[in-house]
Write the structure tokens for this entry.
Amino acid sequence: MRFLHRLLWLALLPLAAYSQSRLPPCQGEWSRSYWNNCQGVQPLTGGDVYVGEFRGDKRNGQGSLTFAGGNKYVGEFRDGSFHGQGTFFFLADGPSRGDRYEGEFRDGKRNGQGSYIHADGSRYVGDYREDRRHGRGMFLFTNGNRYVGEYRDGKRNGQGTLTFASGDSYVGEFKDGNYDGQGTYLFASGTRYVGEFRDDKFHGLGIEYARDGSVSRQGRWAAGSLVQAQALDPRRYPIPVDGRAAGATSLDAGRAERDRLAAQAEAERQRRQELEAQLEAERRRRVEAESRRGSDEGQSSGTGFLVAPGLLITNQHVVADCQRINVVSPDGRRAARVIDSDDLIDLALLRVSGLSGPVAPIRRVGSVRLGEPAYAFGFPLTGLLSEGGNFTTGVVSGLRGLRDAANQIQISTPVQPGNSGGAVVDSSGGVIGVVVAKLNASEVSRVTGDIPQNVNFAVSLQTLVQFLRKNGVSTSSVERGASLDTAQLADMLRSFSHRVDCSAPPTAATPTPPRGPGAGAAAQAPNTALWLLNRASESIFRVFVSSTDSKDWGEDWLGQSTLSTGERYKLEPSADQGCLFDVRVEYRSGRSEEKRNQDFCSLSELAFEGQRAR
């Protein structure tokens, strides 16, 4: 009974392990920041994603780790490993698909009390060591059989009781899952065998008792058959108490408790499914929040590709209303300006001085075929996914776009926010379109009740060529050539694709006051807001701003936040202090950098390069 109470405790305890985190969101990019006492999203090598709590820049506390193959863990972490109470979902293809483990972990493995539920409904509840069943446990089979007893190295080893749905039962010693050693087998008919077993059969010395308790046969047995009759001492092989197998009394007494435990476990399963749905919704919310990181400050990004030296194609909506446009390449950032844009077809042509490199080959117009492969490369979800870009595959699923638009094609190639403006190419690397949009699955589901799968759109090849010709950009049309392997295509796409960053003006900025003669006392208060940009190779941990006339740096503007490389932070000191301010930043390494006598009324951005850090 004590063991059954331990199992009941195990079924109830994991609920406490999945409480929602109350820690604040982590600041900055996980790979460039020191995350401590916060919650964030951490993409890992190979496509795994962790969502949860961090302490000491490691996964510590409550979290969820989703593996690229499909498996998922939800529960407690310590120093980056599963440690504490948690649930592991086996969702990847393989023999364990659909299984689930709920219980204790230590150092990334199942250690302690746990419950393993198989996809077919069978389950084990008991002790684990190093990912194996080890200690006391109970296994419930789908056919109604159940085992309660000892395990070692994943198998039944030691003393145990195996009860069959037919009414038979065995109580005794097990080895490697089989009856082996001294034991008793009670048949549903009331007859029983008491003696030695090997490999699930009567083997050795033993006595067979009739239903009335009299001896039927006795002697030496082999492979289930009596091979030598001889008299044995009944005291060595006694009739079990009350004519039943030893241990059956306690088994029957505990059956109601086990049934209650099974019902409790099923209720727990349903509650955990609901909780898992809540955790998944929270994960999606965080991912969406990360993908919009900086958008409240007027920051967004997309993708573009070279069509000629210094000329880049992207979407019009990527560069619309931008105060500044920067093109990010492996060799640095370059300012860009719009030469022409067309919001009807959603294309824009950018001039980027000094940007050279491979130019995208353009496929011959009119040769795109329904069902042919379509590949895309872009920079989706900046700050969450790989900064080196992402490569996806699909097919041309329609030769017209949304609402039968003739200037678009439909593709099944997966795209995300940030892919906009990227090239879509065929199997030989020729451009056949420009990524422009994806169908809003949630809205379509709300209207139709069905969730669309991989419905995305690209500006058509013909529309792209016409736009380039209008701007005098000459391209040499290429025929569909020999197919390249996907690794070659990914390298090719990456070579002519570039990230496009847009800095929009603050939506509620104070108008710049008149500064020349005649401004007078009636002029508006000066606008002292500007963006502090971290261009150093390390994170900024503290920022101080003070009037040039002041001798006190004051309080740290960042507080608990961190400003990673490439990120910016809005500074807006009081206009009552004038326009001239001194700024000091302190880096993660402990070095610092200062800029004196900065005119906040005329500057829109103040960059720190880390070159004069000390």
Summary: The helical segments are 2-12, 248-291, 316-319, 441-448, 461-470, 486-496. The longest helix spans residues 248-291.
